[in-house]
Automatic annotation (TrEMBL):
It comes from Gillisia mitskevichiae. It is an enzyme of class 5 (isomerase). GO terms for biological process: L-tryptophan biosynthetic process. Keywords: Amino-acid biosynthesis, Aromatic amino acid biosynthesis, Isomerase, Tryptophan biosynthesis. Pathway: Amino-acid biosynthesis; L-tryptophan biosynthesis; L-tryptophan from chorismate: step 3/5. GO terms for molecular function: phosphoribosylanthranilate isomerase activity. Residues 7-214 form the N-(5'phosphoribosyl) anthranilate isomerase (PRAI) domain. This is N-(5'-phosphoribosyl)anthranilate isomerase. Belongs to the TrpF family. Pfam families: PRAI. Signal peptide: none annotated.
Length: 222
């Protein structure tokens, strides 16, 4: 059994948050971006403390993020815009020494990606997240070219994202197996899912997520 973390992103409705939280995913994401149909407002019901509540922001003012971190007690902050490494440093320092929130920096990828872009962020953020570049800032429901990750040059662990659904379990397994051969499987830290598990934007299918979670990381022969 592999230790692949699961992040479910784009939660919106209290009852649905509780249904998905009952599966104990490792991360639950709440989007603060008005241009998204998954834009979150309101309250997050009490959920198991093992789940890292994650605020997702797109080029937001640092004050706005701090306000949400304080209000919702976020354990992780996902930066889904064009935030610079300097911005990430400022955010870390603004959070203060007593706040250990993880910072996840997103990069949008399609057919090619210049991994040199990651260099300024090394040691500044906790994780990278690779998502698909599309017409929306996130939640495009399409996969990018994962072959690119076979040459992943960084030592910062990453989340794999973009159009991941039940059909991608085997493909994930194959990427993991490839990285394992290169002693790099620990770098594939987690899988981020969203629109492929939705009944409508922001409303997740808990049964389908359970199925995915049960299959993720099983030692399937590839
Ligand atoms: O999902 C959104 O609407 C969204 C909007 C703006 C910024 C980020 C957004 N989603 C963040 C995520 O982490 C998604 O899980 C990621 O984009 C993958 O989505 P999908 O391709 O639907 O699996």
């Amino acid at each position: 059994m592999k230790d692949l973390k699961l992040k479910v992103c784009g939660m919106k409705h209290s009852e649905n948050i509780l249904a998905v939280a009952a599966l104990i995913p490792d991360y639950l994401g709440f989007i603060f971006y008005e241009g998204s149909p998954r834009n979150f407002s309101g309250e997050i019901p009490e959920i198991d403390t093992a789940i890292k509540k994650t605020g997702v922001f797109v080029d937001a003012e640092i004050e706005f993020i701090l306000d949400k971190v304080k209000k919702y007690n976020f354990n992780a902050i996902q930066l889904h815009g064009k935030e610079s490494a300097e911005y990430c440093k400022e955010l870390r320092s603004a959070l203060g020494q007593n706040n250990s929130a993880e910072i996840i920096k997103v990069f949008s990828v399609k057919e090619s990606f210049d991994f040199e872009e990651l260099i300024p962020y090394e040691g500044v953020v906790n994780f990278f997240l690779f998502d698909t570049k599309g017409k929306n800032k996130g939640g495009n429901g399409i996969a990018f070219n994962w072959e690119l990750l076979k040459d992943y040059p960084s030592s910062t662990p990453f989340f794999l994202s973009g159009g991941i659904g039940l059909d991608e379990v085997l493909k994930i397994e194959k990427l993991y197996a490839y990285l394992e051969k290169k002693n790099k499987s620990k770098l594939l830290f987690g899988i981020d899912v969203n629109s492929k598990f939705e009944i409508e934007a922001g409303l997740k299918d808990a049964n389908a997520l359970k199925n995915f979670k049960d299959n993720l990381g099983l030692d399937i022969q590839v």
